[in-house]
Amino acid sequence: MREGADPGRAADVADAMRELARARFLPPEQRAHAHEDRALPLWHSQTGSQPSTVAAMLRLLEVPVGARVLDVGAGSGWTTALLARLVGPDGSVLGLELDPELAAWGAGNVDACDLPWAHVATAAPGTLGRPVPGGWDRILVSAAPRALPTVLVDQLADGGRLVIPVASTMHLVVRRGDLTEVSTHGSYSFVPLR
């Protein structure tokens, strides 16, 4: 665990991942592999991230109860559901997925979890994120751009956190007023952000 991280939030991540089993968010032919710590294919060249990577990203994000969270590249809906479990019913989570078929399937997966404060929607082509008044408390991105997208940084609330793999390096961005702090946290492999 990173120095200064809240051990209670890390335990919450582990609890959420136990409660919301990965197998529920995989195509039937991949469910036998749900316990394997590797990315698994969904369809249309999209993958479901490996559990250790998802856990690391969620720990970096430090999601508080009641937060408003944007999940970019929601895919199967697993990360959207995990985020919903972390924010609880006083929070809200919007998962965005560019592939309409995958977005519809991910939305159905999240709906089946009885987490009405979380939704998956189809992302608008050519538009990154979805601005909201006051900004998002947390933004999770599960696809890799070549450079840090300022459009997402601009969608953060004051005190907000963005976790995003840029090229092959995990970045944490913390917004403090007009200033941002950026730190890096290891190498990972992700599909490209489109």
Automatic annotation (TrEMBL):
Compartments reported by the entry: Cytoplasm
Entry's EC annotation: 2.1.1.77
Keywords noted in UniProt: Cytoplasm, Methyltransferase, S-adenosyl-L-methionine, Transferase
Keyword Transferase: yes
The keyword Membrane belongs to this UniProt entry's keyword annotation: no
Gene3D superfamilies in the cross-refs: Vaccinia Virus protein VP39
One Pfam family recorded for the sequence: PCMT
Residue stretches in coiled coil: none
Family in the record: Belongs to the methyltransferase superfamily. L-isoaspartyl/D-aspartyl protein methyltransferase family.
Protein name: Protein-L-isoaspartate O-methyltransferase
